[in-house]
Amino acid sequence: VQLQASGGGLVQAGGSLRLSCVASPMIFSISDMAWYRQAPGNQRELVATITRRGAITYADSVKGRFTISRDNAKNTVSLQMNSLKPEDTAVYYCKYVGWHYWGQGTQVTVSS
Q1: Rounded to 5 degrees, what are φ and ψ at 43?
Q2: Which of 47, 61, 80, 81 is deepest in the core (most CB within 10 A)?
Q3: Percent of the chain having pLDDT more than 90?
Q4: CA-based Rg of the chain, rounded to a whole angstrom?
């Protein structure tokens, strides 16, 4: 049950990062996918989802700044993050929707 997120780092406010997540091919092909994030002291929150057919939803806090996408040939889901704000600082996780499995996240830190 592979879920490996990468692409995090330290960036100044207003900057951009692109997160990627490699998934298990068999599960990815039948799953909707999501990105979550968890900031220190906060509960994990849903950032964006994308269905197998490409329908997309975003949290209000990231609309217009983040873009989720999936590459079914490469079994990857990505999150392009633009106009980053300090409040976007968190550990970001990708997830199979409907599965109780959390892979390793990637740290995103936005400095002011």
Answers
A1: -75, 155
A2: 81
A3: 92
A4: 13
Show the tokens assigned to 51.
């269905």
Contacts of residue 15, defined as CB under 8 A and 6 or more positions apart, other chains included, come to 84, 110
CA distance 85 to 91: 14
First-last CA distance in the chain: 37
Torsional sign, CA 6, 30, 52, 48: negative
Q: Which two tokens stand for residue 12?
A: 């100044």
pLDDT above 90: residue 102? no
Residue 40 CA to residue 109 CA, distance in Å, equals 11
Higher pLDDT, 51 or 2: 51
The CA distance from 6 to 51, in Å, is: 21
